[in-house]
Amino acid sequence: MKEWLIEHKGGFNVDCTAKNEYGKISVTEEVIATVAGVSAVDCYGIVAMASKRATDGIVELLGSENITRGVKTKIVDDKISVDLFIIVQYGVSIAAVARSAMETVKYNIENLTGMPVVAVNITVEGIRVEGKK
Quick check: 49 and 36 in contact, CB under 8 A? Predict the structure, then answer.
């Protein structure tokens, strides 16, 4: 496992840096959020990420260009925790979809960054119901 140095650069900007004999690798929180969002949307039963507007509690469906707005990441003591806000498809088992998303997101972040993920929390913000044809 790589040794990661976490550097807080003010505000919410965090750099995770690993050094080895060849140089260093820096991964920002936004990259981790992007990996988490893309991994979640690829899971069966998840139709989109959701962003809840704090002012009125309205949930908005996010397209692929805003996928990180449905993801919150926290890095503490070289460990990552991820919160996902999702919209699921009507008729699927929410528990099964959430389990699949947790495993997939954890695996992809650890595989791509080499950093340990200690928690993947899922909040289902809505269910998309397709009209019958």
Answer: no
Per-residue pLDDT of the chain (133 residues; tens, 9 = 90+): 455 454 444 444 556 677 778 888 778 888 899 999 999 999 999 988 887 554 445 555 545 556 788 899 988 777 899 999 999 999 999 999 999 999 999 999 999 888 899 999 999 988 888 755 4
Going by C-alpha positions, the residue among 47, 123, 38, 43 that lies closest to residue 90 is 47
Residues ≥6 apart with Cβ < 8 Å to 22: none
Burial 54-77 (b: 16+ CB within 10 A, else e): eeeeeebebeeeebbbbbbbebee
Chain-centroid distance, C-alpha 52: 15
What are the residues facing 18 on neighbouring strands?
A: 4, 25
Q: Which two tokens stand for residue 34?
A: 């992007």
Tell me 43's DSSP state: S
